[in-house]
Specification:
heterotrimer, A alpha/beta (255), B mainly alpha (287), C mainly alpha (318), A: 255 residues, alpha/beta, Rossmann fold, four-stranded antiparallel beta sheet, 10 strands, 38% helix, 25% strand, B: 287 residues, mainly alpha, ABC transporter involved in vitamin B12 uptake, BtuC, 74% helix
Chain lengths: 255, 287, 318
């Protein structure tokens, strides 16, 4: 079953002077699929995500969204196209409620933000969208709680809720389960299983169990190069992948 | 402009710049290492000038007065750091602004109480009061050359301390990574006291040196403070090298501006600062 | 509601009740009415600064530039011996000032942090020296305002600006309007994004908002409110001079704002009254009032971490 290709990179590269962070990456991301991206440290995963959401400009290569070329555009244009991104390091508004966090995210969809007079609480659609996003990730009980007072795992969920509140079509998730305990991770896995039926998800994670369980397609990066893309089984059996990971372990043992 | 006038103004500008560097280096050192913006820094300059005037009136000797004033300023710096500045370390920039403005009030009031509001002057010391013949027609005051030499000597000493000594290493380390310095087993509190005291000394010494060259009046601290800020911002906050370059630029530009475009001369350094910031928003030698 | 904190509501209620009655009790003493008027005008200036620094997150040391412009624009735009209409000219002045603030803001908002502080300081210093060195604007002596404007609306005139009591109520009205305007803006959809930009600029940008635009609009609003305050001050005393736009003026306003409790807006009123009150008290007590003033400021920084409003809130909020 081929879903539409909603996001695509063509020979994408990023060089910092002599250092090649990413070299000649061509990938295709399909709608309503979860596409995992893994690789040893320094493989270029975060760099890839940063370019897919427009924060970083590629040195060469193209990015296509629904067939249109978007690399080089300002980051807010990426957001407006529905490309949402969550951060590896929790980046929320700590001093306000969870609801307000998501309301800020949602406001752009429904209401003119240059309105100097209308009370921020007056637009019901913004309120509802924020509440819906919080319920989607399982934070109904925390709607009125100040974000700084919820647990770390709940903050990661809030991070996810904020992206959902922007009504994206593509979710770029940077280690959403970082630092979570087992039970919390299970909850996120269940959520992502549900979400991938609606959104295109690009998931960078170190939690291999989650990756194997969720990924419809899996890409392995190593040292900035694209090693392989395929189904979970295809990738697990690929000798080069084992080499890339095990090779790193040998290096560390020898050191 | 004749070549003669050009060179005289150039030397004037450099000498003024060197003096500015002395004051500015203290400000930028304290900010770079401790993260403290000390608005009362100009008051230290004023304190140096008033102290040397007072002691010259009492003892008659410039040398003795200069040394005495410098020592008192050092003690003052240590006292202020221990009693007040220490409480600012975990507070934000605005609280620092407020507290140091309060200090300005206190120092201005003390100046008025102790020494009154009349303008004072310090005579150029006998040994340095001559002029060096420059061309057939003009000569240049010896004291100004002496002042410039002292500034260069202190600048060299500062450079030596910061780059070659253990204290300097701690200063450089403390600027970028406070935790690392603490992990090295260094008492960061003492380091900060020393750095702040050095900063105060630099300002006070420049006030001492400048005293024979200008009138000692209330408010002299504030006018020098603003120029100091411009120097530090142009050079890059926290960079002593930047303060040096910035000070020389400001010194030379404002001296020439006063001669060439007197109606705009007050504005010129601000225009220059804005231009620098538009091109290099962090200053010329930003960290 | 726009006044969310109990402390805020209590303070403002008491403040406005007392303020409304002051001229009634001090009818004979126009000096005190005048002093109170000046405090109210300063409060408008400080509230506009508190808005910019405390809520938008733009720490500016050049706010007095617009305070001075309010006065200078009046003198520049109006004929010397003619009483113009106050409302029309206030509108012109604020409009012109908004344009100037737009241009300045577009330049300075490209910097941030300590560099923003310095560049705003530099621009106000430049303006100060421009007026200081200028002949046509009276240099350091400034210019006099010979005729106070008249205040008719559609032919109906009820305020005589030469009357200290009338002027007082005009200033009080300005405080009320400024307070309401700022509070409404902060509560609005615009205010939500402005607050978000201050709390976490990176996150807000990542959500697709153009932070520069929000800050620029806020800067124009804050600066224009300051200009209105400057206009009132110039009209009250009948002159304008470069001392209106010194960095000491900006610095003093900052002190009042921090003293009152930065970001609370109503704290700006508290801070202004306290500072002016302390200065008046110390000045009459001793020639060396600056000593006590400085000492009081230092003590307040060390003991009242969130300013006077913060202290009151600690007492009154549950």
């Amino acid at each position: 079953m081929a879903n539409d290709i909603i996001l695509e990179t063509e020979s994408l590269s990023k060089h910092w002077g002599g250092i090649k962070a990413l070299n000649d990456i061509s990938l295709q991301f399909h709608d309503r699929q979860l596409h995992g991206v893994v690789g040893p440290n320094g493989a270029g995963k975060s760099t890839l995500l940063n370019m897919l959401c427009g924060t970083l400009q590629p040195t060469s290569g193209c990015i296509f969204h629904k067939g249109e070329q978007i690399e080089g555009m300002k980051p807010w244009k990426f957001v407006r196209r529905g490309i949402g991104r969550s951060f590896q390091k929790t980046n929320i508004y700590a001093d306000v409620t969870c609801l307000e966090n998501c309301a800020v995210a949602a406001q752009r969809r429904f209401a003119g933000s240059f309105n100097l007079f209308a009370s921020r609480h007056s637009n019901k659609l913004v309120q509802e969208a924020a509440e819906k996003a919080l319920c989607q990730v399982g934070l109904e009980s925390r709607i009125q709680t100040v974000a700084a007072e919820i647990s770390y795992g709940e903050q990661r969920q809030l991070e996810l809720a904020m992206v959902l509140a922007t009504d994206p079509c593509i979710l770029l998730l940077d280690e959403p389960m970082a630092g979570m305990g087992h039970e919390e991770s299970q909850r996120i896995i269940a959520l992502l299983n549900e979400l991938k039926q609606t959104y295109c998800i690009v998931l960078v994670e170190h939690d291999m169990d989650a990756i194997f369980e969720l990924s419809d397609q899996l890409t392995v990066l190593d040292n900035g190069t694209h090693l392989i893309t395929g189904t979970v089984d295809e990738v697990r059996n690929e000798p080069r992948v084992k080499e890339a990971y095990l090779g790193k372990e040998d290096e560390e043992e020898a050191a | 402009m004749s070549t003669e006038l050009f060179f005289v103004q150039l030397i004037n500008g450099i000498q003024y710049g060197l003096l500015l560097f002395l004051i500015a280096s203290g400000l930028t050192l304290v900010f770079g290492v401790m993260g403290i913006l000390n608005l009362a820094h100009g008051s230290m300059y004023m304190v140096g000038a008033y102290l040397v005037w007072y002691f010259v009136a009492v003892t008659g000797s410039f040398t003795v007065s200069a040394i005495l004033s410098a020592v008192i300023a050092l003690g003052l710096g240590i006292l202020i750091e221990r009693v007040l500045i220490q409480r600012l370390y975990n507070r934000n920039h605005l609280d620092q602004v407020l507290l140091t403005i309060g200090m300005i009030f206190v120092f201005n009031a003390l100046q008025s109480i102790l020494w009154g509001n009349d303008p004072y002057g310090v005579a150029v010391p006998e040994a340095l009061s001559g002029s060096v013949p420059f061309t057939d027609n003009s000569s240049y005051p010896v004291y100004r050359i002496f002042a410039a030499m002292v500034c260069i000597a202190i600048a060299a000493a500062l450079y030596f301390v910061v780059s070659k000594t253990r204290l300097g290493m701690l200063i450089r380390a403390g600027e970028s990574n406070r935790e690392m310095v603490e992990a090295l087993g260094v008492n960061i509190k003492s380091l900060y006291t020393i750095v702040f005291a050095i900063g105060v000394m630099l300002a006070a010494v420049s006030g001492i040196i400048a005293a024979p060259m200008r009138s000692i009046v209330p408010g002299m601290g504030e006018s020098v403070l603003i120029t100091c800020f411009v120097v530090v911002v142009i050079g890059g906050m926290g960079s002593i090298k930047g303060a040096f370059v910035g000070a020389l630029l400001v010194g030379v530009i404002s001296t020439f501006a006063a001669v060439l475009i007197p109606t705009m001369s007050n504005m010129i350094i601000y225009i220059f600062m804005i231009l620098v910031l538009l091109v290099k928003p962090q200053g010329l030698f930003a960290k | 509601m726009i006044f969310e904190k109990r402390t805020e509501r209590i303070f403002l209620a008491i403040f406005f009740v007392i303020a409304l009655c002051i001229p009634l009790f001090l009818e004979e003493n126009s000096f005190f009415v005048g002093k109170a008027t000046t405090i109210l005008i300063l409060a408008v200036f400080v509230m506009s600064l508190d808005f910019l620094v405390g809520r938008v997150g733009l720490v500016t040391l050049g706010h007095a530039l617009f305070y001075g412009l309010g006065g200078y624009l009046f003198v520049i735009l109006t004929p010397e011996y003619e009483a113009v209409n106050f409302w029309i000219y206030a509108f012109y002045i604020m409009g012109l000032n908004a344009l100037i603030a737009l241009v300045i803001g577009a330049v300075v908002l490209r910097t941030s942090g300590i560099y923003f502080i310095m560049i705003t300081l530099a621009i106000s210093q430049m303006a100060y020296y421009y007026f200081f060195d200028s002949l046509e604007f009276g240099g350091n002596d400034g210019l006099f305002i010979f005729m106070k404007p008249e205040t008719s609306i559609f032919g109906l005139s009820f305020l005589n600006l030469d009357n200290p009591t009338h002027f007082y109520y005009l200033a009080l009205l300005a405080v009320l309007v400024t307070l309401l305007a700022i509070k409404i803006i902060l509560r609005s959809r615009f205010g939500r994004i402005v607050e978000a930009s201050r709390l976490n600029p990176e996150r807000t940008a990542a959500l697709g908002y153009n932070i520069f635009a929000f800050r620029l609009i806020s800067y124009v609003i804050g600066s224009t409110l300051a200009a209105y305050a400057g206009l009132l001050f110039a009209l009250q005393y009948g002159y304008v001079n470069p001392q209106f736009m010194t960095w000491e003026m900006s610095g003093t306003a900052l002190v009042m704002s921090i003293l009152g409790g930065m970001g609370t807006i109503y704290g700006a009123i508290i801070g202004t009254i306290t500072y002016e009150g302390l200065q008046y008290f110390f000045e009459h007590m001793s020639e060396d009032w600056m000593l006590f003033m400085g000492g009081a400021i230092i003590l307040m920084v060390l003991l009242l971490r969130k300013g006077l409003a913060g202290y009151l809130e600690k007492l009154l909020e549950k």
